[in-house]
Amino acid sequence: MTAPRPDFPMHVSVQEAREMLAALLPAPTTETVPLAEGRGRTLAADLAARVSHPSATESALDGIAARAADTLTATPAAPIRLRVVGESRAGASFSGTVGPGECVRIYTGAPLPPGADAICPVEQLREEGPDHVLLVRPASPDDVRHEGSDFRAGEMVLRAGQRLTPARVALAAALGHAELPVRRRLRVALLSTGDEVVLPGQPLRPGQVYDSNRYGLQAMLEECGCEVLSLGHVPDSPAALEEAITAAGGADVLLTSGGVSMGRYDFIRDLLIEHGRVAFWKVRMRPGGPALLGGWKGLAVFGLPGNPVSSLVVFQVIVRPVLTGQPVSTLRLRAATPFRGLHDKTAFWRARLREGRVYDYGQQGSGVLRSLSEAEALVIVPEGSGVQAGEEVEVLLLA
Ligand code: AMP
Ligand code: MG
Question: Does the C-beta of 305 come closer than 6 Å to ligand 1?
Answer without folding.
Answer: yes
